[in-house]
Amino acid sequence: MSSSPIQLHNFIGGRFVPPSNDKYFESPNPSDGSTNALVPDSTDSDVDAAVSAAATAFEAWRNTSREARSKILLKIADLLERRIDEFAEAESRDQGKPVSLARMVDIPRAVHNFRFFASAVLHMTEKSTEMDGVSINYVQKYPVGVAALISPWNLPLYLATWKLAPAIASGCTSVLKPSEFTSVTCYLLCDILNQAGLPHGVVNMVFGTGPSAGAPLVSHPKVRLISFTGGTVTGQHIARTAAPLFKKLSLELGGKNANVIFADAEYEKCLATTINSSFRNQGEICLCGSRIFVERSLYPKFLADLKARTEALVVGHPSDPATQIGALISKQHLEKVMGYVALAQQEGGTIETGGTLVTNIQNGANGFYMRPTIITGLTHLSRCAQEEIFGPVVTVIPFDTEADVVEWTNSTQYGLSASVWTSDLKRAVRVSGQLEVGTVWVNQWMVRDLNLPFGGVKGSGVGREGAPYSWDFFCEERAVMLAL
Ligand code: NAD
């Protein structure tokens, strides 16, 4: 059953403050449609106060040692780890994901983000050169300044900390604006930041909508860097705003990722992973594989088994440990995803399974649930196979040749990730090497090494994050040439 809504406040200069207009909006609990949080409806004056606090804090924070920053990051990680259960429950209530998933993935990954960058910052080294006894030259890295961090609703704390941790590590100060749909765990983190001894103003949070709170943050003259994760259309808007102001920009945007499955794939692993990559977190992960291309000789068996496994998935209340698929983020998003089911039929597709709302969830009658859905009979150029649906819906399409499947994989405006399934090592390398994406998994999915560059190409974004890429992004470089 739902508890009474939590009222959030902005976090500015280490203090919790109401929005200047004293307005709040209701953020629903996706599992039952009740109000989960009252979120500040912040505007430009709140953003200005947060940016000013960050700018003031930057003067001292930029000069702290890497060791000092590392210690604070480790403290944050420890404090968060002690509260994993509380944060997992809060994340699940706010986002609709199964609490078991938040407990196993989201919150531990947020802890890991802090620990990883606490360690990474101690190991960053810079280049130096010497010119024939004339000059010795070296590169100095220094923090950019005030960073705007804007995050989406699908992996709320996980993706916010993917930005916060390197910003803190590099000596930047920041203003984070989480998604208006999922602000609660970021809000809870503020308390931990204070307890860990992070100086006031190093991290500030402003809660609110994209147009009211996000837009003034992006265009604020004192913000020197923007790290944004969200939709491609929002990313275009932010890029248009930021370009004439010469802000450093990282855009992690949408995806329409392909699973390329050859007939010689290790069958059981491939099938089980495809279920995960299709439907984990209700299919609301930017890295989910939503276009499944299967070599024609394997296609009938694979489709039958995929369908049977999908039908066995438990859609349920996120708090139920047996639940595998929780609630979608909002009524509006559920309607958008169901709209694609209708579109698939108009495009001539067949709904093999799913495509229906689920309305009989105990304690969740007004929640946003649907059955995981498999669509066949569409080409790779159909709208359902080209546009990002971002829900538990996949298209399965047979292919005949390697050349075809490479062309089809590359045929969308997106280029975030792909997975390739084959036992033929040469083919794995050949196919991977032709895919226009930022990440390729071979015979696996969603394995993340934070040392590697993470990001997309084409409509999936610009820039890379991860160590050392985040270090490069959150720092400027100065070349110093010293006469000998
Ligand atoms: P969204 O673009 O609607 O919102 C993302 C964030 O931007 C939110 O905090 C929102 O309030 C803010 N925002 C909206 N308009 C803004 C504006 N004009 N100026 C500044 N900020 C603004 O995206 P979403 O619906 O929250 O998230 C889903 C999308 O995120 C999907 O497309 C998904 O693929 C993508 N995503 C990408 C990655 C990645 O790593 N590439 C990871 C997760 C999600």
Quick one: overall form? globular
Roughly how many Å apart are the termini?
Answer: 73 Å
The biggest sheet amounts to:
7 strands, mixed
Could you please say which CATH topology of the largest domain applies here? Aldehyde Dehydrogenase, Chain A, domain 1
Number of strands: 21
**What percent strand?**
15-25%
The CATH C-level class name of the largest domain: Alpha Beta
Number of helical segments? 15
The radius of gyration is: 23 Å
| Overall tally of domains | 2
State the CATH superfamily name of the largest domain: Aldehyde Dehydrogenase, Chain A, domain 1
Round the mean pLDDT to the nearest integer and report it: 97
Physical arrangement of strands within the biggest beta sheet: 15-16-17-14-13-18-19
3D architecture notes:
The chain contains 15 helices and 21 strands. It has a seven-stranded mixed beta sheet, sandwiched between helices. The protein has two domains: 6-253 and 459-483, Aldehyde Dehydrogenase, Chain A, domain 1; 258-450, 3-Layer(aba) Sandwich (Aldehyde Dehydrogenase, Chain A, domain 2), CATH 3.40.309. The longest helix is centred in the N-terminal third of the chain and has 22 residues, at 99-120. The chain has helices spanning 44-61, 66-82, 84-95, 99-120, 156-170, 184-195, 210-219, 232-242, 267-279, 299-311, 331-346, 383-386, 402-409, 425-432, 469-474; strands spanning 6-7, 10-12, 15-17, 24-28, 35-40, 128-131, 135-143, 146-150, 173-177, 203-205, 223-229, 248-252, 257-261, 289-295, 350-353, 373-376, 393-399, 417-421, 439-442, 461-462, 475-483. The protein has 484 residues and is α/β, with parallel strands linked by helices. The model has no long low-confidence stretch (mean pLDDT 97). It binds nicotinamide-adenine-dinucleotide. Nicotinamide-adenine-dinucleotide (NAD) binds at residues 150-154, 159, 177, 179-180, 209-211, 214-215, 218, 229-231, 234, 237-238, 252-255, 286, 388, 390, 416, 456, 460-461.
